[in-house]
Write the structure tokens for this entry.
Amino acid sequence: MKRRLELTVNDECLDVEIEPHRTLLEVLREELGFTGAKEGCGLGACGACTVLVDGAPVLSCLTLALEVQGKTVTTVEGLVKNGQPDPVQKAFVDHGAIQCGFCTPGSVMSAKALLEKNSNPSGQEIREALAGNLCRCTGYQKIIEAVGSLAKPR
Amino acid sequence: MMRLPKMDYAAPPTLSEVCVLMSEQQEKAELLAGGTDLLPACKLRNKQPTLLVSLGKIPSLKDIRFDESEGLRIGAMTSLNALRYDPLAIAHYPALIEAAAAVGTTQLQHMGTLGGNICLDTRCTYYNQSESWRQTRAVCLKMGGEVCHVVPKGNKCYAVFSGDMAPVLLALDARLKLASSAGERSLRLSEFYSGDGRKPLLIRPGEILEAVIVPPPAGKESSAYLKYRVRGAIDFPLAGVAVRLAATADGLCRDCSVAITAVSSAPVQVPEAADLLKGKSVTAELINKAAQETSRAAHPVANAFGATPSYRRKMIGILTRRTLTSLAQNLGMAVR
Amino acid sequence: MNSESYAYIGRKQPQIDGLAKATGEAKFTTDLVLPRMLIGKLLGSPYPHARVRNVDASRALALKGVKAVVTGKDVPGKKYGVFVSRMDETGLTVKARFVGDPVAAVAAVDEETAMEALGLISVDYEILPAVFDPEEAMKEGAPVIHDEYERNIVADTHYDFGDVEAGFRECDHIREDNFFSQTVSHATLEPRGVLADCDVAGKLTLWTSTQAPFQVRRDIIRALDIPASKLRVIKAHVGGGFGGKADTYPMQVAATLLAMKTGRPLKIIATREEEINVRRRAPMSIFTKTGVKKDGAIMAQYLKILADSGAYSSTSILMMYNSGLTCMIPYRIPNFKYDGYQIYTNKMVTGAMRGHGANQPRFAVESQLDMIAEDIGMDPADLRLRNASQKGDTTVSGLHFVSCELSRSIEESTRNVGWKEKRRQKGTNRGIGIACGGFVCGARISGHTASGTNIHVHEDGGVTVITGSADIGQGSNSVMAQFVAEELGIPLSDISVIAADTETTPIDNGTFSSRVTFYGGNATLLAAREVKQMMAGIAATLLKSNAEDIVFRDKLVFVRDDPSRSIPFGKLAKATEGMGHGRLIIGQGQWAPTNTQFPDKKTKWGNVSGSYSFATQIAEVEVDTETGQVKVISITIGDDCGQVINPLSVQGQADGSVAMGIGHALLEQLLFGSNGQLMNPSLLDFKIPTAMECPPTTLLEVGTPDPIGPYGAKEIGEGLLITTVPAICNAIYNAVGVRITELPITPEKILKALDEKKRREKP
Ligand SMILES: Cc1cc2nc3c(=O)[nH]c(=O)nc-3n(C[C@H](O)[C@H](O)[C@H](O)COP(=O)(O)OP(=O)(O)OC[C@H]3O[C@@H](n4cnc5c(N)ncnc54)[C@H](O)[C@@H]3O)c2cc1C
Ligand code: SF4
Ligand code: FES
Ligand code: FES
């Protein structure tokens, strides 16, 4: 039986009727059309599905959609404000942190969560925060540089 | 996409309602905490509950409190990330922080709870596979069949407990508070694990882990956790050692506790190792002996990717020596 | 013109579709949805070798929401495959040759129904004896996997150049060693996927994750027996390929068949488990014999390689050819002999993967060179310098190097890291190691024909580049745009690229063999120059000058000696269309090198590539001698990829290669069970490096513009990976004195070797 799910996605209050066994990733991609978050494994090991729930980076492939009832979800699409990309997105582009781009939405969200919590992360902190986002193309160096470029010395 | 089986969902707002629901449903329902262990198992059809009962709507399960006499009381739904950055935990139990920081990835730490980590299912290379993958072989014991593909002779399941938090909590002599419709009970963590890979927890049907209580540190003591895994992130431990060490004023070992994980179907304490040190002046030789004892207590089998059983056993010894040595040094015990 | 005076070439350029990818706008196959779209799923064989006697799909078809089931019997056409001489796949099979080999496919209204339907299909199998080890599979009497191939030998390639026996006789020192390179997965983050659509007239369109849409078309029209004009294949955004998506895969065949059958759009997206089970890098056992003079000069070399093909041939003959060929690139070897065999087994298929056949022998040879250097008391860097190939060289196998800065790459990289001092450091468990390599820029063995590009200039001066080259994440669209920007003096933001669509773009063989910048780039240059010439003619009239004196830069077109006489590019575009005979501004280019030969059928002699890249890699590692764990501290690369077009993507290729190399050297290994089943088809259990394992890389560009490559560019995508593994191996030896000859280098292997070393040294 379908259930009603109310949530805020990218600043928009939405409600959808879903079956209770849907994951947040399924609902975002298949019900709401936010296809930014990707499934790289579906089992928690790659980070391609990372989105923010109440500001925390979570794996949407392992989040039951009904668990985010009443919560605020931010996807990579939602970082674009008034047609302007987020500084994290811009930094990824400018630093060459993107090759194929399949891991990018997840990596961007992890980076965003880190910078919101810690405006001046060290290189090691950046590596740790992004260690859950596998990337087969970039070797991570440019991603780490991109995030590092946004670190603001206090 | 990897799909979950059809299941119903409930998220009662109070613990007592959860208890009632669980006692009615019993086997067919599963408690949902962070879901990072349960949902992969459902996707792979290792588990097919008809109902998920979420603990997410009960705020009290996320409390962390410290009390000089009781110690640290951590609600079962506390996320590993919250624990990792909790000032009380940081101040008193370094090993808890080290272990929480070593779990999976940042995302998994945000989602995963302490309760879920303690209640983690055991793992095996033949078990954590998709349904269609498993269909090429006979159903194994853990899935309700009659054979074991790892140790074919004998009728025991050797699936390995691979949680990072349990060994630390064992070393810290933590107690669990469990709730059910039949009432509450409290038991030592060491009494919680069955050692049977098939059904690793001695939790009763309908029971809910409510909180973990870690006794207060007494005097000069510290703790540490070291884990061996293939990569610096994502991977479950292939061997893990937690140690709590307490010093007397004149630098002798007042108390010690050693616990290991990921080398058998339950995380276990190794009193044989800890006892060697108690009351003694901690020497390098003694530490080596304790390390040997600890590695003797490890019984890994070939059911994890990334290292052979003999290497994992060896690593238990090395990690024990390293944790003991650094703790002794931190506590100002002269290690000779 | 040197790079200083370029406006775009040699300058850092973010990918033109970077923002689309960073915002989630870029659409990968999995993101595409069509009205009434069905979902497809494949049923894999649970047995490694079995004949399908019968498939009973009645229960599946009775399930609500199931629209069609197809099996190997429904595939009407001929076998397909990468090479005409080795076509052995059908997409859905009537004889399963590995666990997971697809025998049926279902179309249903959603994925869950499709999954349920798979469980309701009953297949009656006749189980056949299976063989998993290539050596066993080669023996007389072993189960035959494909009837046409005796003793399961799918490829055997032999080189014999110079006089190897005589060469060895002249040597002062000869070594013979055995090596083993394990099998690994491409592990692209994007799993394979395809969306097929069939219109009422029977015209089929495929959007798919591929490196080679034209190859996909060729294979599918064969397999399903449909006219080429009835199938259009469009590459969607592709989330990495690394060679794995160069082949047509069963999902593509099945999706097309199901779309035809149901008349509805149908999508199949692989799960990670299904994804990993499609292709992998071939494991190779390598015997190497190398002989040198006292001064280190290599006189002769012999390699014998036994490679596992898995259940189908894929690129086998090219791979085995490459394994030998690439040994000829970095060093002058006057006498060279090679025997390469690839053998069918009942395991999942091996195929092209970044470096394609070069990685495994490079690991063996570079390791052995260090062993030889030690034997004869020579610095390993000096040994390499002594033998390094030089510009103008023609190898005994016919390869010809029109540009080559290998010596410089050795000199610069060793200087940069402080080689001599670091080699001398003792007792730290830190070590440093070197390896050299080189790679083709598109090997002209079968299929590698020209690439093509068309360019349209719009009336406002915007430009559309239409190229056959497939961007799979490496950024070739951006590189093509950069060439056009440089030629026409317009910013990249004014250029859009349409790529890799069998119906609208020029034919292209695909993205592999490091050919894209080299071939596609040159084709694009030709097209841009055609446009430029046409516009320059009009500009000359308008500005009262000669076409040769017209310069295109900064969106302006002006007279070289008098820039004040200028016209904006956009205006000129409009003027060009309006003036004269009102011609369209369209440029066309197609290009293939003319200095190559198809290798001789018998001897394999021939210059297969227009140019060759060269590189030296130096790894610094630290080894924990108690646990055996290895930490890679840094990687330094001296690279000759000719003229760098985009430093950002060149560095990106270097970083990515190093990460993959670290995985290959230390972490990754696909494992098979006793039934030939892949044991670790997941990103948890198949361990690719995370951000924690990858050290910073230093890339020193030492190349000079190549006379043939576009603006002097050569390849960088594959050549760098092949040297990471041996550099790490050699660094470990330098650190702790143990030589690991079987990959991956696990801590356990290090400890075992350290133990053996201790025992050896004791008495
Ligand atoms: C890729 C990957 C890597 C991982 N790496 C690690 C690692 O390195 N170390 C590690 O320790 N773990 C690891 N994990 C496992 C998991 O993420 C953590 O152990 C996490 O802490 C589990 O908590 P959870 O809340 O998500 O558990 P859940 O999945 O919600 O629950 C796990 C089990 O415990 C039961 N349960 C949960 N809470 C209670 C309760 N309060 N009372 C009674 N029963 C309860 C559930 O019913 C379920 O059976 C990894 C997981 C993945 C997917
Ligand atoms: S140890 Fe044996 S019984 Fe237990 S899960 Fe593994 S194969 Fe099954
Ligand atoms: S898709 Fe969620 S972690 Fe891989
Ligand atoms: S950019 Fe391709 S996986 Fe990260």
Summary: The mean pLDDT of chain A is 97. Chain A has two domains: 3-78, 87-148.
